């Protein structure tokens, strides 16, 4: 059942023109960050690490959270048009299958975006004349960034499933990104999805996480994903979806 639902979601996604956004926002992040690095090389002297702090800061704090919100809103947009939710909810498919199919598609898209951003980061470093070898820690930051993005996606889906507007959940996501930055500064980053993204990608602090901190980080992401997913599925099952 999930397989058929995934196929249907993929077909709907092909009609949406979100690929431009998926490509444009990582490019914008790397361009802005690389320009800032190039203009401040006298201060930023840790080469690949310094470049990461610049491109990753714009990406993880602003562009990536917005991109996640756009993906989730786009995957729910067709259902909010022409009362399509009513048709889907009466189909012989479980609500959980509908939700997880959307989540799987979103997770795949975000993984592709992360890989594309990684390639852009490496290309920018070579164009800026950095040494050929970069730190392997970058791979860990990218993977943790993807894991944290799923927690944010669960949050954004909980909004997009019940808010008919395409722009409003994205606006809320942008506000949440600023709130996440504030939570990180206040040393409360482990308790908010967007802050977990900042911690995972190591753009504001590259000292690394202790085993205890890594356990808490993984646990909080898991809790957010499970709780928000259960909430969304129960809401879809027990209440009429706004259509």
UniProtKB/TrEMBL annotation:
TM stretches of this protein: 16-37, 57-78, 99-123, 143-163, 170-194, 214-233
Keywords: Membrane, Transmembrane, Transmembrane helix
CDD domains on file: ABC-2_lan_permease-like
Domain of life, per lineage: Bacteria
Pfam families: ABC2_membrane_4 (PF12730)
Name of this protein: ABC transporter permease
């Amino acid at each position: 059942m999930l397989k058929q639902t995934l196929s249907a979601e993929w077909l709907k996604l092909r009609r949406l023109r979100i690929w431009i956004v998926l490509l444009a926002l990582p490019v914008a992040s790397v361009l802005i960050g690389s320009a800032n690095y190039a203009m401040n090389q006298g201060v930023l002297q840790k080469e690949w690490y310094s470049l990461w702090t610049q491109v990753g800061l714009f990406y993880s704090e602003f562009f990536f959270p917005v991109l996640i919100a756009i993906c989730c809103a786009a995957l729910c947009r067709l259902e909010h048009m022409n009362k399509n939710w009513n048709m889907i909810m009466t189909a012989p498919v479980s609500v959980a299958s509908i939700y997880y199919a959307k989540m799987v598609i979103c997770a795949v898209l975000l993984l592709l975006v992360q890989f594309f951003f990684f390639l852009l980061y490496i290309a920018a470093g070579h164009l800026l004349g950095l040494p050929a070898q970069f730190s392997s820690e970058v791979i860990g930051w990218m993977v943790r960034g993807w894991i944290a993005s799923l927690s944010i996606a669960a949050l954004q889906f909980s909004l997009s499933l019940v808010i008919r507007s395409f722009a409003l959940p994205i606006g809320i996501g942008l506000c949440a990104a600023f709130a996440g930055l504030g939570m990180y500064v206040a040393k409360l980053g482990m308790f908010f999805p967007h802050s977990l993204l900042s911690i995972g990608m190591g753009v504001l602090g590259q000292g690394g996480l202790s085993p205890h901190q890594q356990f808490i980080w993984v646990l909080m992401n898991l809790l957010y994903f499970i709780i928000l997913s259960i909430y969304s599925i129960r809401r879809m099952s027990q209440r009429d979806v706004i259509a």
